[in-house]
Amino acid sequence: MEMPSSSLILDRETKASERPGDHKDELRLWLRMLTCSTLIETEIRNRLREEFKTTLPRFDLMAQLDKTVVGMTVGEVSQRLMVSNGNVTAVVAGLVTDGLVDKRPAPQDRRVQILTLTAQGRKVFRAMAERHEGWIAELFAGLGQPEIGQLFRLLGQTKTSLHRAIAGRVDESAKGDA
Amino acid sequence: MEMPSSSLILDRETKASERPGDHKDELRLWLRMLTCSTLIETEIRNRLREEFKTTLPRFDLMAQLDKTVVGMTVGEVSQRLMVSNGNVTAVVAGLVTDGLVDKRPAPQDRRVQILTLTAQGRKVFRAMAERHEGWIAELFAGLGQPEIGQLFRLLGQTKTSLHRAIAGRVDESAKGDA
DNA sequence: AAAAATTATTTTAAGCCTGAAATGTTTTTG
DNA sequence: CAAAAACATTTCAGGCTTAAAATAATTTTT
Q1: Which of A9, A41, A79, A116 lies 20 to 30 Å from B38, alpha-carbon distance?
Q2: Cα angle at B6 between B4 and B9, to 5 degrees?
Q3: Low pLDDT (below 70) residues in chain B
Q4: Whose C1' is closest to the CA of A103: which nucleotide?
Q5: A32 and B155 in contact by Cβ < 8 A?
């Protein structure tokens, strides 16, 4: 048997996981979060396919466009959805073919494309959105209102932490480029 | 101006969001969780590519195989990773080509394929896993130990809720098939 | 104003991922 | 024991996704 160096007392005092270099708790947290996200995503994907014969990327894209009356550029959508430009181009192509989205160059700046929901697109989306909201509520039904609030708050902190860590790393590498 | 029917008092008493049919809180919670997951996933993907020239699906697959000495079947991996069988087949093919994974039919049951990490695969994975754990810790650095615990617990409740909701729906549709 | 830099989008090549159909194997059933 | 059912995996067609290169338009610089 191996002796854990000299940390018998230390372990007892620190309730584990303050051993230097140990980050198992964070890892377990991430894996659990990933499990939840995947379960929800898969379920929503399935229901969208079964009930509306559509896909999650299409739904998400339409959801963005539904938030505006004046339309959105490709770049704007790609940023909000956190996907690449090329991806937006591809998904939009399908939606245009199906008459759900309208795409036209902006009159002032011919580089940008303005995307809007068509009347039909808006109608179709609204119907899906209502169902979607119900599905999400169903999935979270095991949580009470206080838990939902707490979770929301903690995920807010997490989001802040992530942004800081990711931005920090970008700055870091930019320093070396100077 | 529109009058919100007769719920002025009700709204005040229920602090909003107990209006019938309203589930905006759940929806906001889900979107925030999705944002966190996406941020983490994208960042890990980027770092795996930059530092190890590999992809997240490959890393995840190797992570499963690292948990066992006797190997795992395709179905087992696909279940744990929550992806399709076909997907595992495809990703494994790449890893076999690169000499990181070994794949051979089980001697007793020639339907199943046993997947194991090669010696090299195990070595490569261990190196990546150590870095990976550090990255995750970095990303969650803005949260204290109590927050991590709380979040972990709440996500546990969420997982239970999801399983119940998803299983419930399967039972429901099975009833109609009888 | 021509050249260079910047910005927005599209294209391309490669890999991931899925559901459904097909294949090969084992187990169950009549 | 042969036929049928069940099981594990692979193949297939189609869509998603990305990074990087290419294209096109605008703005800045010289």
Answers
A1: A116
A2: 100
A3: 1-20, 169-178
A4: C9
A5: yes
